[in-house]
Amino acid sequence: MSITLARRRVIPGFGLTMGFTLLYMGLIFLVPVGAFLLYTTTMSWDTFWHAVTQRQVVASYKLSFGGSLIAATINLFFGALLAWVLVRYRFPGKRLIDALVDLPFALPTAVAGIALVTLYASTGWVGQYLELFGVRVAYTQLGVVVALTYIGLPFVVRTVQPVLEDLEAEWEEASASLGADRFTTIRRVIFPALFPALLTGYALAFARALGEYGSVVFISGNLPFRTEITPLLIVAKAEQYDYHGAAAIGTVMLVVAFAMLLVINGLQWWTSRRHG
Amino acid sequence: MNTSNQAASEVDRADTPTASDNDALAKRWRRATEEPAWLKVTLITVALAFVALFLVLPLSVVLFGAFERGIATWLEAIRDPDALSAIRLTLLIVAIVVPLNTLFGIAAAWAIAKFEFRGKPILISLIDMPFAISPVVVGLIFVILFGSQGWLGPWLAAHDLRIIFAVPGIVIVIAFGTLPFIARELIPLMQQQGKEEEEASLTLGASGFKTFWHVTLPNIKWGLIYGIILCNARAMGEFGAVAVVSGRIRGETNTVPLHIEVLYNEYMFTAAFAVSSLLTGLALVTIAIKSVVEWQDERRQRRAAA
User: Fold this and answer.
1) Where does the ABC transmembrane type-1 domain lie (chain A) (predicted)?
2) Which ipTM value was assigned to this complex?
């Protein structure tokens, strides 16, 4: 006890750094978020309910949630595959590809947006070949899924990769020497070890996709009831000075985001407990 | 490979050893601990195809679109007065936001890594919060607070202050959106390094600031540099939040990403890609620096292990 007290006194600056941290966070986002939620509570329940259940808004929830789920699922499979290949196999250009995985994280979403729509337009490098098979991506719901897949790509890879790197070879060898074939070892030993990380990456990719705006609005074409995502409706309502409508939908998104944050924190705690 | 052979030969020793048995066992062991070659090749090919489709092609289409009509056209797009004013505004914004978020990142990491206090996990989660909020909602929050029809709108108008559709609003939403980046780099790094070195320095009589400058800073240098570069790239590229608060006034409140959107919507594709190539270059530098940081980290760990 006395030792910890003495130690506490050695390093200075707790008051200063903690004070600045809380002041800055308070000014930049805690107070504004609080005030925003307060603003929503000044609305009557009817106004709020009407704003968040309009047909056009409900259609956008379906697309935003559905598209984000599909995109996160695609990322779950390909992200796990990419992490596996990057950790376990050797091939030329591996380091470069490993670095490129972070691109969706570093490239501005507006740039990604115009790049994707140019690629997948019916005259684009990819779109023209898909057109031959009758598949249209640009200005369809499929385009939304493509953009959301792009934006969520780093998350599963980057959560699974470190867990896979730390996985002891002994486990797999023990499984093999007990007579399991490779498929059984993957299914019964490797997959359970990766499971919390996979789920965390999935939740992160899903949460990111839900709120995404820049990379989607170019490729989606923003057709009412068909390819409008929820964030787009918020922008549209804010631009028309419909602050009540925008704030109501924004509150729904904020609450979902907080819920996702709780889920992700829980999953990360689970992952670290398993692999601490 | 080595260990599996050893293990195989140990298994072998228990039975009656013959050369062909040995081979067969090694083969069986490999089958049980590794994927067959054809499967490896297939998995690598599928992974590479996914990377090509989602990462390499979008990158290539930007660079191709930017330089398709030659350097002169590219330069013309960059030198356009609207583009230059967007670049100037974006540089001004990051000159304000990045130092503030750097200071915040260092302060938060110092408080969290060097001290024990109640509610630490909650503080760490709170720092992550801006990450979870849609950029569009971030913009909306400040429009509701400071917009002409927002809560503080009438008061601001009476005092002739403008935040929304002006530079201060853009600065605040970008500071909000990029707040976690440097702190998130530094917190795990400083937690992992502990506080023994600082305690030694302080016990020997160095001041707190001197200790930070000569002991802590060299240790976190690379993580800090990556955090700053990433924060800078994200600040320059922030789109959704800025789209809501900027009002897109040409030459006044158009940042680089908004200028790209304007060019694209006016069908000036080459110019849009030319301006995009600037931010793309920045993104590539960012991920290159991340690789350098990781490489340094690996080297340090290897040295520590040796």
Assistant:
1) 61-264
2) 0.91
